[in-house]
Amino acid sequence: MIKRALLLLLLTAVWAFGSWWYYTCMIKGFCRANGVFTSAAERANSTALPATAAATGALALADSETDPSSETSADTPSDTPAATAPITTTTDFIDADNDAISDETERSLGTDPANDDSDGDGIKDNIELGTDLKNPVDTDADGIIDALDEDDDNDTISTMDETSTGTDPRSADSDADGLSDTLENKALGKIGTDPMNPDSDGDGLTDGAEVGSDADNPIDTDNDGIIDALDDDDDNDGIPTSLELKLNSDPINADSDGDGIKDGDELGESGMPADTDGDGVIDLIDSTNDTPNDADTGAAPADTPADTQTTAQTAVTDEPASDDEVTITASGDEADINGAITIQKSRLYFPFHSANPKLSNAATNYFKEVVQWLNSNPAHSVVLTGHTDDIGKAKNNLNLGLKRAVEIKNMMIKLGANATQIDVASMGETQPIADNKTESGRRKNRRVELVPLIK
């Protein structure tokens, strides 16, 4: 009987100690370290806890769980001098503003640990800093990181305003049309084109190309008070600019072929391009609408002067021409050594921002000779390659180079050439032949090169 009572007492003591341990360590979060009771909360909120303070807390806890009148406990370690007390540190990740960047990192970067948008621009710090916190993003390279910069791209429009209007706060030219967001911003009293659309009027020409080189005085071809970049009919000839580009007529000239008849009147009553003489060249770009094209017979066009029906054998150098004319240089020593190609290679130099400039007299005579050479044999062909100076964006210059080559092709067609014998290409600004730092050099680079070939 006594043995049973002792066994029951022992089991009761074991159960009581286990319950006390579970409540103290598992529920309340206390644990024993270096003989001292500490709590998880104390360790998280303190970077250093003196052993004496911990011991005091442990004694108080021990007293409350045992005898309130006891001053010490037999198993409580003696006080440890503060100078030799171990220091407990925390490695917890502290992020007061919940922006996924630790407060310690934010303090080192200069951002506000208590504010997830330190510069108040509407974009959170963790986005503006980028993925590499050792090299935070500084879009405009002004020495102020984006997370602290109110105008990330330095275009004078605040990041907050750009975020609200939809433009790219990290690009000064959101639509890459060659015009800055500031310049296109109507609210600032500027041009008024769409900073998020490179072709505001949808006519097939970029805003940058239509505004021209002087953004303070954007081009208004027809002087109707609507700049070309916002005008769907730049020359006010009754034909939308987008359609003229498809027809190869001149969108900034109301009389593309210079025959005295407005393009809109030559388009045709049905809205389809008219070809009065059936020569394959629509009236819009055919200055001789009643003159048949004799290219298929091999004969020279009827309006070609007799003195141009001989092959070009001597060097051609253009006389000084007006600023709106295409000039030309060609050399006789560039002809084929076997004599099969008697037409000289040539370079045609364009005025700045030309659309459909006139040919100078020497250029006109040269092209009549080229047309005659093409008409003499269907195997003859030429390649026209457009080039530009380096003003403007490379992509725009590539398009401009091709446009110039197409302009020369259209001029040759007007003179009677067969379009199938003329190929066009563009090298844009990639092959300069002179220094782009000077106007004379840039003029030489604004050119179309003609190379005769035999297929």
Short description:
Helices cover 28% and strands 10% of the residues. With 455 residues, the chain is α+β, with helices and mostly antiparallel strands.
Overall description:
The protein is α+β, with helices and mostly antiparallel strands and 455 residues long. It has three domains: 2-84, no CATH class; 94-172, no CATH class; 294-454, 60s Ribosomal Protein L30, Chain: A (2-Layer Sandwich). Helices cover 28% and strands 10% of the residues. The strands form two sheets. Strands 3, 4, 5, 6, 7, 8 and 9 form a seven-stranded mixed β-sheet that branches. The protein has a two-stranded antiparallel sheet with strand order 1-2. The longest helix is centred in the first third of the chain and has 26 residues, at 2-27. The model is unreliable at 33-37, 43-85, 292-321 and 332-339 (pLDDT under 50).
Distance between the termini: 124 Å
Tell me the CATH architecture of the largest domain.
Answer: 2-Layer Sandwich
| Number of DSSP-assigned strands | 9
Fraction of helical residues: 25-40%
For the report, how would you describe the main beta sheet? Answer: 7 strands, mixed
Order of helices and strands: HEEHHHHHHHHHEEEEHEHEHE
Comma- or semicolon-separated keywords:
455 residues; alpha+beta; 60s Ribosomal Protein L30, Chain: A; seven-stranded mixed beta sheet; two-stranded antiparallel sheet; 9 strands
Topology:
Layout: H1 2-27, E1 30-33, E2 36-39, H2 40-45, H3 51-65, H4 103-109, H5 125-128, H6 159-165, H7 181-184, H8 207-211, H9 241-247, H10 263-266, E3 316-317, E4 325-330, E5 346-349, E6 358-359, H11 361-376, E7 380-387, H12 394-414, E8 422-428, H13 439-445, E9 447-454
